[in-house]
Amino acid sequence: MSSPKKIAVQLSNTCYLCERNYSTPASLHKHLKSIHHAVVASRKNFERRPPSAKYEFKHYNGDPDIPIHHACSSCFYHTANINRLKDHILKDHGPIYLESESEENEDEENEDEENEDEENEDEENEGEDNKGEGENEAQEDQRETSNGQGKNPPVRRRSLRRRKSSSADTLANDILNILVDKLHKLMRN
């Protein structure tokens, strides 16, 4: 009785969002974080893919004779279909999407513009309601806050949104996300 022949497959570290291939799971994680702002749990460096009774694993080298399987960078799952990999990652590993710095800045700018528009509307409405009665008070207030050129200085508002974080904050956030992911896995078992 002979054992069945194993199927040779090339394992590719493929981004499930843009389908680019990377040489290592670590470089894929770096890509996910820097380009797609996604944090996904990763395997430990010492965790090696266990032997399979069905497959013989090869590193991706572009050989057209060997089928390509897209490997999960968080566990040992692999599949020939990139959409199955995406479904697996979303279902089993729940990536956390971080807000990019450029999106944060755009949001803050939009928020500031909205606040300025609302303030201008409020000032116009107040002026119409209290004409005559509060003109002297308004003129006094304007003189007190004037910068010498007859104009009020711009009001600088602090946004309640997150500010740019240091690399230590980012690292701590990544570690926290990984620990939360592992806790979810433990609770499922």
TrEMBL record:
Q: Is Metal-binding included in the keywords of this UniProt record?
A: yes
- Give me the ranges of the annotated region Disordered: 98-171
Q: Where is the composition biased (Basic residues)?
A: 154-165
Q: Where is the composition biased (Acidic residues)?
A: 100-127
Source superkingdom? Eukaryota
Q: Keywords, A to Z?
A: Metal-binding, Zinc, Zinc-finger
Could you tell me which InterPro entries the record lists for this protein? Znf_C2H2_type
**PROSITE patterns annotated for this entry?**
ZINC_FINGER_C2H2_2 (PS50157)
Compositional bias (Basic and acidic residues) spans? 128-144
Look up keyword Nucleus and say if it applies. Answer: no
What name goes with this protein?
A: C2H2-type domain-containing protein
Name the lineage. Answer: Eukaryota, Fungi, Fungi incertae sedis, Mucoromycota, Mucoromycotina
